[in-house]
Structure formats: C-alpha cells, structure tokens
Design goal:
This protein is mainly beta and 324 residues long. It has helices spanning 22-27, 62-69, 71-74, 76-82, 107-114, 144-152, 217-221, and strands at residues 7-10, 12-20, 36-42, 51-52, 88-95, 101-103, 121-128, 133-138, 160-164, 170-173, 179-181, 185-192, 198-201, 243-248, 253-259, 263-266, 274-280, 282-287, 290-295, 299-302, 308-313, 317-323. It has two domains: 7-221, Jelly Rolls, CATH 2.60.120; 243-323, Jelly Rolls (Sandwich), CATH 2.60.120. The protein contains seven helices and 22 strands. The two termini are 27 Å apart. The model has no long low-confidence stretch (mean pLDDT 96).
C-alpha cells in the first residue's frame, strides 16, 4: 500500500485573447506563447484534469487519486458530499488586457442548465500595474431595464463599480456578482469546480478570425444580483509566521501564511484536503513519511489522510492555504 504524500501537479496552460507573458516571468510557467492567460494549477474539470508530477503516483490524474483513495485524498465528509469529484479549481490568471464583464450562476441554476456546480470564487491580487483596477458589482441598486438599456447602448460600465487594486488585495466574488479582471492584474483564483461563465460585455473585441466572442445576455439576466455592492475588498490583518484568515464561505476557507521560520500545522480536526499555493519564496513540506520541496508558482495538495505537516522555509515565503 502506497503511503499518500504531498502531491504536485503539471499545470494546464491556456492561451486567452487577453493573456500575456507574466505567468512565465513571475512563476516560470513553461509556455512559448505571449498570450498565456491562465494556468490551471489544480483541476478536476473534464478534459483539463491535473496530472501528478511527483512521487510514486506520478502520472495519475487528480480524478484517479480520488477514485482510488477516496476519503484518504479529500476527507470523509467531502467524499460523501461530492463523490469522486474534486470540488475546487485553482488558477493563476494574467490579464494583459481587460477580461470580459461576466457573471456566474449559483448551484441551483448551474445544476439545471449545465449539470454543473455553480461558481463562487475569490481573487488574491498577486501583481498589479499602477492604476490597475477590477470591476466588482453595481455602484447603486439597478433595475433589469436600466441594465439592459445600458447594455444595448454600450455603456454598461457606467453602472459598475471600478475598484483600484494593489498587490495583496483580496476580493470575494459570490455567484451572481457581475465582475471583471482589468488590464495589468495577475490574480490567484480559488473557485468552485465549474467552468460556467456568462459573458455579458466584451468591448466588441474580435478574435483572430475577426469574430466577436459569444455573449450570454439572456442566460445572465436571471442570475445577476442587481443590488449595489458593499465594500468589495476583504479586510485582513497579516502577521508574519501566523495563519491569517482571508475568506470564509460555504465552499472553501482561505488563509494567508507569510513565514520566515518553521511552522507546525495540525490538520487532524479538519477532515479535508489542504491546498497550498506558493506565491513567493520556497520551502519544504515535511510529514511522517515524505518530504516535498515547493517553489514560487507551485501548488500542492496535502491529502486529508495527512494530519500533521511541517513547513520549513529556505527564505521568506508566502502561501495561500485552502481547505473545506
């Protein structure tokens, strides 16, 4: 019987019309394109399953791991709720141009229309050029007709909240919240495992074939939250060598850990996998039977079966810690 260990994965790289070269520069993602928009770090989405890149189980997909080891990978409560499906998707995103203005359906609508999970997500801003911003919800309460009129006139942006961002900002994007990543922003995205997006405005941008991308105005209409959005940024207080909570929701919990010395992590009470996204630095993960070295830009899955790990930095390191 193979003892489970911290798993690293080969990222799934995706060209996008709005992509750039920052994921190569910041995280050494191995792509030759100048339009790399997304690196799917940990995915169980059909056709884009992550493949283990280290250890005895190298070559298995994330889906294979869950099918074979069940509770040992994700935890009992999560396996009983989601079966053999990994419930989260982790990405790094480089917006070299504005992304489309979009919205995601919740669980109920996504299940009926697409037999999929809904899509609630969060962003951690990894890098932002001076003056960069995001679009997050409406500036004030809006009716469907006001929204449709603005959309038809090509001025829907005038209704939406533009939020300047800097490195370290955190934003929570529940299903139904209209949003867009602006030019010059790189984010780490943690979301439900869903690839369902309703694109409502795309700046009349054309692809390499001269065609505008499909919009989903009708589908989006009954999932949009038309209420004014409150303060969009998540407030948090970071202390070095301590676990700092960022986001708590029904689908995931995310913490930030900046550390300069060894940390002992006890996960025995969680009954959940834990995922680390390394944003800077490099460190070792030590557990009972194995050691893994993690560098900037890598994402690691700690199976639920592993209750204790030790994080040993070689230099100051930053990571996002995620579990359910």
């Amino acid at each position: 019987m193979i003892e489970l260990y911290p798993f690293k994965f080969t990222p799934v790289l995706k060209d996008k019309i709005w992509g750039g070269a920052k994921l190569q520069k910041l995280f050494d993602k191995q792509a030759s394109t100048e339009k790399l928009g997304e690196s799917w770090e940990l995915s169980d989405v059909a056709g884009d399953e992550s493949v283990v890149s280290n250890g005895e189980l190298k070559g298995l997909t994330l889906h294979d791991l869950i099918k074979k080891y069940q509770y040992g990978i994700v935890g009992k409560k999560i396996y009983e709720k989601y079966g053999g499906v990994f419930p989260l998707l982790f990405k790094l995103i480089d917006a070299n141009d504005n992304l489309s203005i979009q919205v995601h359906p919740g669980d109920e609508t996504a299940k009926v229309r697409h037999n999929s999970f809904g899509k609630t997500e969060m962003w951690y801003v990894v890098d932002a050029e001076p003056g960069a911003s995001l679009i997050i919800g409406f500036t004030k309460d809006c009716s469907k007709q006001q929204y449709l009129d603005a959309l038809n006139q090509g001025v829907v942006e005038s209704l939406l909240q533009k939020v300047p961002v800097v490195k370290g900002d955190v934003l929570f994007i529940p299903a139904g919240l209209v949003h867009a990543i602006g030019k010059g922003v790189v984010v780490a995205e943690i979301q439900q495992s869903s690839d369902i997006t309703y694109r409502i405005y795309d700046y009349k941008r054309k692809d390499e074939n001269g065609n505008e991308r499909e919009l989903h105005v009708d589908q989006a209409l009954d999932v949009i939250n038309f209420s004014a959005s409150p303060e969009p940024k998540t407030k948090y207080s970071l202390k070095e060598n301590e676990v700092c909570p960022l986001v708590r929701c029904d689908y995931f919990r995310t913490n930030k850990i900046d550390f300069t010395h060894s940390l002992d992590c006890d996960y025995s009470g969680k009954d959940s996998f834990v995922v680390y996204m390394c944003l800077s630095g490099n460190f070792y993960i030590e557990c009972a039977d194995s050691t893994a070295h993690v560098t900037k830009g890598e994402t690691v899955l700690i199976p639920a079966q592993i209750n204790h790990v030790k994080l040993i930095p070689e230099e100051k390191s930053e990571l996002l810690e995620v579990y359910i």
